[in-house]
Every structure is written in structure tokens, then in C-alpha cells.
TrEMBL record:
The gene is Pcdhgc3. The keyword Signal applies. This is PCDGK protein. Residues 53-161, 162-269, 315-421, 428-540 form the Cadherin domain. It is a single-pass type I membrane protein. Gene3D superfamilies: Cadherins (2.60.40.60). Keywords: Calcium, Cell adhesion, Cell membrane, Glycoprotein, Membrane, Repeat, Signal, Transmembrane, Transmembrane helix. The chain crosses the membrane at residues 548-571. It comes from Chionis minor (Black-faced sheathbill). One of its GO terms (cellular component) is plasma membrane. One of its GO terms (molecular function) is calcium ion binding. GO terms for biological process: homophilic cell adhesion via plasma membrane adhesion molecules. The keyword Transferase does not apply. InterPro entries: Cadherin-like_dom (IPR002126), Cadherin-like_sf (IPR015919), Cadherin_C (IPR032455), Cadherin_CS (IPR020894), Cadherin_N (IPR013164), Protocadherin/Cadherin-CA (IPR050174). It comes from the Eukaryota.
Amino acid sequence: GALLVSERIDREELCGTLSPCSLSFEIVVENPLELYSGAVEIQDINDNDPVFPSSQARLEISESVAAGARFPLESAQDPDVGINSLQTYQLSANPHFVLDVQTRVDGSKYAELVLEKELDREEQRELHLVLTALDGGSPPRSAHVQIHIDVVDANDNAPVFNQSTYKASVRENTPSGTLVAKISAYDLDDGPNGDIIYSFSSHTPAKVRELFTLDSATGELRVKGQLDYEETKLYEIYLQAKDKGAVPGVAHCKVLVEVVDVNDNAPEVTVTSVYSPVPEDAAPGTVVALLSVTDLDSHDNGLVSDVNDNAPKSSQDSYDVYVLENNVPGIPILNVSATDPDLGRNALLSYTLLQGDPTVGHIFSINQDNGTLYLLTSLDHEDQVEFSMMVRVKDGGSPPLATNVSVSVFVTDVNDNAPTVLYPHPNTTATYTDVVAPGTPAGHMVTKVVAVDADAGYNAWISYTLLQATDSSLFSVGLHSGEIFTARQLREDDAPQHTLVILLKDHGEPVLSASATVSISVAEMVKEVLTDLADVAPANDHRKHVTFYLILAVILVSAAFFITMLSVGIFKCYKWRQSKELFNSSRSTLYRTPGPFHHIDAVRGGFTPPNFYHQVYLTTDSRQSDLLCKKPFTSSPLGSCQSTMRNGEPGLYHQIVGTASRLPTPAE
């Protein structure tokens, strides 16, 4: 009597949407024979997904639709029943629409889109939403449909001109068809709502329509008739742009057309007779007639012609320009400005650079039209500090008149040169060793580092510091003099050889530096030092044979110096006696004429190169000696030594002057 399932049961196939779903049957029982009726209820399980009619839905909604409008959506179907059937819908997040789920009489669900925020096609042309259908199973089954919404344009935007007023100028003899101006407007709408037609405004005078024509599609305003400056000098034309919507939007603009005068009218002479006929006895100077000349043209076209009677005049007679050295080639450094009160070609100015110095034409160039002076190359303050040139400003008259303007270009120094060590010489194989005796007290000057800087001013001010030393407590260096002193008294246990590294820095920005190495020996006699140097010197020193000649040269120079000084002494005694006799013979003269100048050149060996010298000038009548430090005659980097001594290092200045006035002795 067991009732078994003979095949798989599909409730949706047997009963569809009917609920409950039951199958009726009858059972016959024999012995005794009996008939029984029965029914089996088929219970539903969630074995079906909701299904939309299509995977995509498309809607067209006008941007003019007000908020609150509803748009029904196609419903999904689920063959399951009860709680397993379709229960609800969900909509993807968006700023414009919300979803309203409604229930029909039979209990089925359907959804409607509700516009919550008005659409704007100009802001967003289309929207993409996702609608999801969910049943009540556990877990729930779902289906999705893509909703594509096209925002339909409404004529809610009027045309807009890119500017409210246009300005143009045209000559009065301009031929017909010449373009005067082009107006432009845009409309954010699409289709006919965004198509623009240009036209004259309704209140445009008929005279303007006769003289000008407007292209309705492109907005080009062209000359149509014959313009006459003497009739009308300015036209104020009002135009409009209109779209093709059902209720068209309109925008307006204004075009100001200035008519430029041309010389198309000849002068007219009017004669007004005063006496007619003129009496034969009329006195000289009697007014016979009045003449007046008129010209309908304007400005220059209506005057008596100009005569080139004014030369160009510059705003300045001379210009001083300061340029940093190491400049970038091709930069403008000056604009020479000039004016000419004449008219037309007589006032047309041109600028030329006079080639007084042949180097100026390779370094500078001037624009002939506007007077802009350009620097063609990079300048070097150490090479040349100043350039002088003349700029000629010439008008276009016949004959032309011209004015010359003086231009001086000063090259300003930058710190582009590091200090150069003169002593001890860094690029030589010879070893310079200074000697100091044991027991030397503190404060004794041992030697001096001599250096120059090719820059000028503050950039050439050199400071000296002790960078490295065999014994840092034994020696010190003057900050601005470069003089090396003993910092304490030398002891017997001090090292016999000392090597000092001196750091030389200038005061420019950025700071540039160099270094000098000084060797100092502690010895009683020079012989000990010479012995030490012989140990480190090369075996074959070809310069040792020159020593004899150097000593001989020193002797000869000393002898010449002695003879010269003796001659000067005798000559001064002679002059003194002569002046004394003259003074005794005549007391009427209070002052005497100074005698001729004498100069002595001296070069201190080892400290300066041969071309770096000083001259000492003395007068025979001076009560005291006056020293004059003369500038070097060459344009070498040593040329800034004079500035260095004047500006930043008084000690070094006096040291060098004193040295220059003393000749070396044979012992030295």
C-alpha cells in the first residue's frame, strides 16, 4: 500500500500559477472490494529565477518634464508561487529617479520610475540605470535589466553672442563684398532648437541695410554699398541671432563700424571780392580779395602738406646701461626712444649703430624700426669694462634729418674668477721652503702668501685661513694679509719640517676659492735647509747652472742702483746750490718750478711675475717722498690688483709699495 513517486515532479508544469497544487487519485482494494479517493499536494520550492522580457529597456524623456512624473517599467515574471514568487524591485543609485513598487489586485508586483530631480540635457545627455527584481526565497533569486534613458532636448536655451559689442574699421573706398566683421553666437540646444539664423534687428535703418549685407548662416557682415566718410563717420548696426525652435530664442548684439577717411576730395578755393573793379589809384597794401581754402577730408588729408623741418628728438641725449657679465647672447638691453613732430614719411624714424669702434658692430645690434639695442655676445668684465657707441636716429624726409644719441654700456662684475696664487707658485717643480730658526718667539712673520683675484671690488677681496698644518698650534695666518706668523715660541722638540695648506676665498656670491701649500723648515742655518732640499731635488737639475748668472745679475743691478743713487745725490746737491744762489739773488719769487721727475722700477724676485711692477715717482724739490702706485699696463688678470689694494687690503698695499721701492741685495 506504499505510494511512491515514479518520476520527477515539476509543480510549475503541472499547475502553473495555481496554488495550492494537488493531484487526485483513486485506489481499488480487493477482498473485500473497496474504492478510496486521495489527493497529493505538490509544495513549491524556489527553483526559478525572475525573468524580464528583455535584457535592456530604453526610455526617451524630455528635459522639460516636471519633477514627480511617473514612467512604468516592464515587470519581471517568476513561475514560483507564494513566498518564492517575485517580491520586490531595486534601482541603482542616481540623482534624478526613485523607484515606486506597486502591488496589483492579484498580488503581483510592478515598478514605476518617479522623476525626483528635473533633467537638463545640456548637463547630461543620457542616463544608465539598473533595475533588479528579487523573489522571497532563501537565498533570494534575482534578475537584472539595463535601463537606458535618452534626455530629449527642449528649446530651453536662447542663443548667446560671444561678445555683446563688435568693433571694426573700414576705409571709405572699400569695394563691395569686403568683410567688415564676423559675429558668432552659440545655442546649447540640439537639432532645430540649436540652429541659429543671423539677421538685422527690426529697428535697423534702411540706409544701413543698403550699405551692408549679413550672411544669415555664417554671420559675416560685408560691405554692400559705397561708404562716404564725409557723410557718415560711424555706423551703429544692431544684429540678432534666432534659433529654429517652435518658440525661438533670440539674442542681440551691436557692431560699431568706423569709416576711415581717405584723401578723395580735392581742396576748394573760395574767392570773395572786396573791391571790384579796383581803383587805379589804390594804395599798395589795399585788400583786393579774400581767399579761403577748404578740404572735406579730415586730419592729414585735409591740411597743407608737411615739410621736413624737424629733426628727430630723443627723450635722452645719452643712455647709461649696466649689464652683468656672462650674459646670455641675444638679449635686449635698451630701447632708444625718439619722436619727430613731422607727419607721414617725414616722421618715419630709423635707427642705426655708428661703427666708430669696429668691435662694437660684432657685439651689439640695433633694430632699425623700434630702436631696441641687442647684445649679440657674452661680455667679460675682466676683458672690457665699458663700451661707448653712437646711435643715429634718422627720419624719412628728403633730405633726411638725423640726431645722434650717445650710449654707454658698463659691464658689471660677477664673481667668476677664483683667487690666483702668485707665491708660492703652484705650477712649478721648484720647492719653495721658508726657514725659521729654533726658539723663534710668537708673532714672528715667517713668510707671506701672495694672491690676486681678477674680479673687482668685493668679489676680489681675498681672505686667508689655515686649512691644514703639520702642527696647527705652531703657525697662524693673517685673515686679510696672508702673512704667516708663529703662534707660539718654537721648541726644540718641534718637527723640523712643516707643511701648511692655506685656503684662499674671495667674498663674492658664490664664494670661489683656491689653496696654496707652504713648506717651512726649522733650522739654525740655511745650509741645513739647502742640504735637505738637495736630498729631495732631482739629480740632474739643469737650473743649478743659472745660479751664477742670477748672482751676477744681482751684483750688476746693485752696482747700477748705487751709481744711480750717487748720481741723483750729486744732481740734487747741484740743484740745491743753484736754487740757494737764485734765492739769495732774488727774493721776489715765492715758489720755484719743480724739476724733472725720476722714477725707479723695481721687481721683487719670487713674489710677483715680471710684468707686475710699480713705479715710484720723486721730485727733486720734494721735502718728503710721495709714492704713486701705478696701474699695470697689461689687461691681464693682475689688472685688478690695484683695486684689491685700494678697496680691501691696506696692509698688503703698503707691503707691496714698500717692497717695490727697495731693490734686492746680493744676499737675497
